[in-house]
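Internal tracking record. Fields below are filled automatically when a chain is submitted to the structure queue. Please do not edit lines marked as system-generated. If the sequence contains nonstandard residues, flag them in the REMARKS field before resubmitting.
Queue: standard
Priority: normal
Entity type: single polypeptide chain
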Amino acid sequence: MSSDGSAYFGEPPLSSGDVTIMKGLFGSTKPPKRVPVPPGEPKTAAPGLVVGLSFAIVIVVFITGARLLTRIFRKGQVFGWDDWIVIPGVGIALAYFANLLVRTQTGCAGKHMNDCTYKELGVFTTIVNNIFLGILILFFFITLFINIFQCSPVTAFFNYAIKVDSPTYHCLDTGKISNAFSIINCALIDLRSATDTRKT
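SYSTEM-GENERATED OUTPUT FOLLOWS
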């Protein structure tokens, strides 16, 4: 038994909390098979994970900051809709990286699966699912906004008389919008599949 009173991965549950977590993660109260550990594998990958995440945070902040500062201070550059979308996207990415950094110190990130307790797995999965849900909600509102305001004036999207009578109307390329949404949908499906612990 671990210090948090929860059983390790692959062992029978020790509490009602373990049972609940096992049902949620694996769809069963039957202990999952323990993962074989190759000889010589380090006890934890947390140090490497910390270095990699720190490098990723620096790169994301540097590139995004350079882009936004260029838009602000370079003559002739203006903020576009893509710049406004980048800001919350980067915020979500940084929050996810920060969460992983915290979990390397207080949770299961970087540990071998067999060294994680059901409680640690449950907390980590809950955080990942909440982040995923937040991304979905953000994507929904971005999609809704673009669909409503893709034409100027807005009524030009469904009122063909405006397109005939007003040569000054402007609409975004619906083909590019559709392709972008399709790519994001596929990425979200792949992300959800990759974080689905029930396949373990």
